[in-house]
Amino acid sequence: MTTLLMSQGTPMIVMGDECGLTQNGNNNVYNQDNELSWMNWNWDEKQQQFFDFTSQLAILRAQTPLLRRRKFYDTKQVTWIRPDGKTMNDNDWHNGATRCMGLLINGEHVNEQEEDGNMVAPDHLFWVLNAYWDDLPFTLPGPGRGHHWAVVVNTFDGYVNNKGAKITITTPFTIPARSSVLLKVV
Length: 186
Description:
Helix content is 15%, strand content 24%. With 186 residues, it is α+β, with helices and mostly antiparallel strands. The protein has two domains: 2-65, no CATH class; 70-185, Golgi alpha-mannosidase II (Immunoglobulin-like, Sandwich), CATH 2.60.40.1180.
């Protein structure tokens, strides 16, 4: 859900996605009147937590112009980063063993107005995705003089905070297994 709501374009969410409803891999249940297509509104605690997390992600998307742009980013606005802190190259993109990467969004290069006419804030966001089954060390880019990174989303903890929680950066930063973390410069 995090990948869907933090990606560019219109999030394609169907009923039940927000609470973790599964159709057991069947994406064609429209003509089935059985448990595959039924919506159970009596959620367990895990489903309610996922719904709350998804709701907070939707609010974050609505409040963060860099996550809901009307145009796709160009190469001046984003940089893909490897876990060692270096920019990804063609070999990295073609390496089947790549399991972790980061996306640095430089809002200073986004010259765009919001729907209300205000300019998009020159924020810096850094989104790290770890598809590996172990925690991985990740060397974060420097946040800039007088600034620090703040955690906005941590899927491992089910954490969303639009203001961000200030963290002390240790080099390297540990990205939990099979999770993603969104940071912003504050």
